[in-house]
Amino acid sequence: MKYVYPVVSRRAGGVSLGINLNTNNACNFRCVYCQVPDLVAGKAPPVDVEQLGSELRRLLDDICAGDFMQRHVPEGSRQLRDVALSGNGEPTSSRQLGEVVAVIEQELARRALLGQLPVVLITNGSLMLKPEVGAAVTALSGIGGEVWFKMDRVTAAGIERVNGSDIGPAGQLERLARAAECCRTYVQTCVFACAGEPPGEAELAAYLERVREIVRRQIPVESVLLYGLARPSRQAEADRLARLPVEWLEAFAARIRQAGLPVRVSA
Question: Structurally, how many domains does the chain consist of?
Fold first, then answer.
């Protein structure tokens, strides 16, 4: 399949149906932990929306009425958890995002899954101020969707170093607020060791202050999804990156909770 792929997701806790709009491996961020090989700067190419709908229909039929789970999924993970707009780049860079949301709605309704199966947009949030993106995300909210908004670091230097973006702290917060206005929104944060060291205390303190600011401004963020590295990076920095102990993640999660937001940890 070109656009739709199944994955056993540790964060979802079962099978997630991924939808890849960036089949050209193009993104406007360059995260050091990104697992996409041959990543290039750019945006999503034109999408064959009809083909995408056909692929989603076939896979839903195989999962819901066939023996896909028995053939391909380990026992204990044989539950369909969500449809995720994710893939090999930034999905909101697709000009057809709104059309894709409409196709997802159609296929879920056909299987009586509309409102039952979450639809997740995994995004770096950089394009959230574009009217067409806001409209698509609002439509996503209308089918029970949610946004997972990347906030790995919150200082200008940290965002540049980890995400390869010059969006800056103020721009990041403005876009997060816009996402939360349009749709149920979670912050997703990836933490890891670099050259044997976890994120520095200054960066962690800035992150906690950002959480307090989100709470003060009453930006309706549901919670933080805090996670570590699961698969090897395919970027030049790969050899410098390593997983952090689950104890480190849990300790930082406790500090985030003290700052005012709930946290779910995926080591």
Answer: 1
Output the pTM of the full model. Answer: 0.95
Tokens of residue 218, six digits: 């009453």
Q: What is the DSSP letter of 48?
A: -
Domain that holds residue 258: 4-266
CATH number for 69: 3.20.20.70
Q: Residue 182's pLDDT band (boundaries 50, 70, 90)?
A: very high
Q: What distance in Å separates the CA atoms of residue 117 and residue 137, rounded to the nearest whole number? A: 17
d(CA 48, CA 206): 42
- Mean pLDDT value of segment 256-261: 98
> Helix (H, G, I), strand (E, B), or coil: what is residue 229?
coil
**Averaged pLDDT, 25-47:** 97
- Please say whether the beta carbons of 259 and 223 come within 8 A: no
Which of 101, 107, 95 minimizes the C-alpha distance to 121?
A: 101
Region 246-267 average pLDDT: 96
